[in-house]
Amino acid sequence: MPFTLWLSLAAVCAMGAMSPGPSLALVLRHTLGGGRLPGVAAALAHAMGVGLYALLTVWGLGALIARHPVLFQAITWAGAAYLAWLGVKALRAGQASALQASGVATTQVQAARDGVLVALGNPKLILFFVALLSQFVSPDMSAAAKALIVATAMIIDGGWYVLVAVALSHSSVLPWLQARAHWLNRVTGVILLGLAARVLIG
């Protein structure tokens, strides 16, 4: 793959990772709930989910969904249902006056599970990889070039969210966020429910 083409790919992946959405809300929630390690676990697991979608894309996911729109609709609806479930959980957590690290049952295993599920169930990621990443794949592309695409998507996504988790868990940042966590949970819940509704409406 030419270096200029790879730079375009990296820029697209970076924009996708940095855009606000349920993935950022997930890392925020687990970092607030359990500290740095659960936040990092969520970030790395999310990157694995991103890598799976990237792998499926280079294997021809775009062509498959183009031939079977019902499959794409089913994936999208399943993602919307999971986003709605996360939104309800966030709203219920927001009823507390503040979110303390010891007051939320979140572990590295739970964070990793949610990281993978949010990545796989996020309609934005499905659209991102099918519509954008597939543009960098050609029928005659070598296996090494395909592996480079998958690795680039994973490393940029994982690196960004690990950076977010580390920054949020800094001693001067985390207490400030914890004191306002009930508002953050409410906003996150509304955003997640809104995204789910938007997907279902079409």
TrEMBL record:
KW Transmembrane helix (keyword) present: yes
Subcellular location: Cell membrane
Transmembrane segments annotated in the record for this chain: 41-63, 70-88, 116-136, 148-171, 183-201
InterPro entries: LeuE-type
Keywords: Cell membrane, Membrane, Transmembrane, Transmembrane helix
Any one cellular-component term (Gene Ontology): plasma membrane
Single GO molecular function: amino acid transmembrane transporter activity
Topological category with respect to the lipid bilayer: Multi-pass membrane protein
Coiled coil: none
Name of the protein in its database record: Threonine/homoserine/homoserine lactone efflux protein
The organism of origin for this protein: Onishia taeanensis
